[in-house]
Amino acid sequence: MPEFANRGRARASAQRAAAWAAGDAGDTMIEVMVAVLIVGLIGAATFTGFNAVASLSGQQRHEVQANQISQQDEERLRGLTSTELSATAPATGSTGSTYGNVTYPVTLDGETYTVTSSTRFVSASGGTSSCTTSGTSADYVETSSEVQWANSNDGRPPVIEQSVISPPTGGSLIVEAEINNTTTGIAGVTITATGPGSSNLTQTLTTDANGCAVFGGLSPGTYSVSESDSGYATETGVTTQSAIIVAGTTQAITFQLGQLGTALGTFQTFVNGTTPTAINWDSFSISNPNVTPSPQSFGTGGGASASSVSSTSSTVFPTTYNAYAGTCSSDDPEGSTSTTGTTGTTGTTPAAYTDPLLTVPGGGSGSAVVTVPTMLLELSTQQGSSTSQPVTAPAGTALPYTVTTYDSCTPTPGVARTLSTPPKSLTVGTATVYPVQAPYGSSVQVCFANTVSSTTKDTGLLPSSGQIANTNLNGTTITALTLPVTTGATGASSVFSYTGACPA
């Protein structure tokens, strides 16, 4: 019995040991899993730290390299001449080269950096910009080299290096380009300084955003300074000024420029009354004594007619002009005591006449309606010394002759205009008249031509002695003309006694 009892106790002890062993194994597994998790977290944190350190190292490298590049650019600027420091590159993407104001790329260790160089001449008295404050001088040059890179500079501000450069001994020249009658600067105007004296040495700059170009370190002497810009012009047409440079001083000159615009003329006439009728015409002119050149004419006298005529786009100085039909100064009715009709006049009494005004805005277009005077021609034919016979026809009948007018331009007989459409008859009182348009003038003439049996003959210039005064802008003056013929035939059968052709 004791043996069996001992066996029972031993079995119970073994079972308790097995149970303890099983419980202990479960605790060990949990501990192992916890340990693995902790190691994983530590590893992840370690890798994250490594990445952050690597990223921080890259950002610091970018900033260090940007500092190096900005310092190199400042060294480049210190090696430029005064004129090169003031110069602006024509476009981005170029190398720094010989420009003080330029944007260009630099690649270092696979990273692309953008360098922006800028300079400005300043005065020692107050440090103000030489081109933005009147009366200042170009004493020294402030330079700036700004460097940026990708990803918004890794969230950092750009690197900027600045310096001050004293220009070499000599004189300075400040040139400003301004919009006419203002102090607003014009950027992009080409300024060229040639000299000193008879020297052909030229230096060229482009005005900056303030409309300014600064030449520094100039040898003493007289310089020829010119401006050039296809979109602007001076009022007087003068594009060159003279500047005398003295060592240690600053000379300043200004070009007042207007942005060129376009002039447009449309045409009207008055036929026996005060109601205007729109017509086609070939040319018009504008004048202003303060503008060179003046007058300016557009279209071709005697050329094709149209409802409107325009100057070439953007070629007219922006200001206000007098406008009139025709291409000669004698075609302008303003100021003539012979002018009657339209603005400022009554009936047929001569009075002060004022041309319509045409205002061209800077960079824009201006227009005016100009009046082409109408002559009312009362025609008759005459054979030899016989009595003249009036040319009569129902109203609206086209004249069967070719009509060419000649204005008052010199040399005589002036600009020839052959009417493309024959004038049609009009009854005024008891007279049959033919309205014919011609530019204003006191010495207008007309030539008639007719073709009979394949032979063309004309009248020659009429009137044969004296001229027609085409000065009534209301178109109410009747002028009688006699057409010489070789036979008594009238109308389309008339053979004019003058052999030849109307003057071209």
Structural commentary:
- With 504 residues, this protein is an alpha+beta fold.
- Among the domains are: 171-259, Immunoglobulin-like (Sandwich); 262-371, no CATH class; 374-493, no CATH class.
- Helices cover 17% and strands 37% of the residues.
- It contains 3 helices and 30 strands.
- Strands 21, 22, 25, 26 and 30 form a 5-stranded mixed sheet that branches.
- A hairpin with a 7-residue loop joins strand 6 (190-194) and strand 7 (202-206).
- The longest helix is centred in the first third of the chain and has 77 residues, at 2-78.
- The model is unreliable at 1-9, 16-23, 44-54 and 344-350 (pLDDT under 50).
Outline the secondary-structure elements.
Blueprint: H1 2-78, H2 82-86, E1 102-108, E2 111-122, E3 140-148, H3 150-154, E4 159-165, E5 171-179, E6 190-194, E7 202-206, E8 212-218, E9 221-228, E10 232-233, E11 240-245, E12 250-259, E13 262-270, E14 276-278, E15 283-287, E16 296-299, E17 308-310, E18 320-325, E19 357-359, E20 365-371, E21 374-383, E22 389-390, E23 402-406, E24 416-418, E25 426-428, E26 431-437, E27 441-452, E28 455-458, E29 468-470, E30 478-485
Parallel strand pairs: 5-12, 13-20, 21-30
Antiparallel strand pairs: 1-2, 2-3, 3-4, 5-8, 6-7, 6-9, 9-11, 10-12, 13-14, 13-17, 15-16, 15-18, 18-19, 21-22, 21-26, 23-24, 23-27, 25-26, 27-28, 27-29
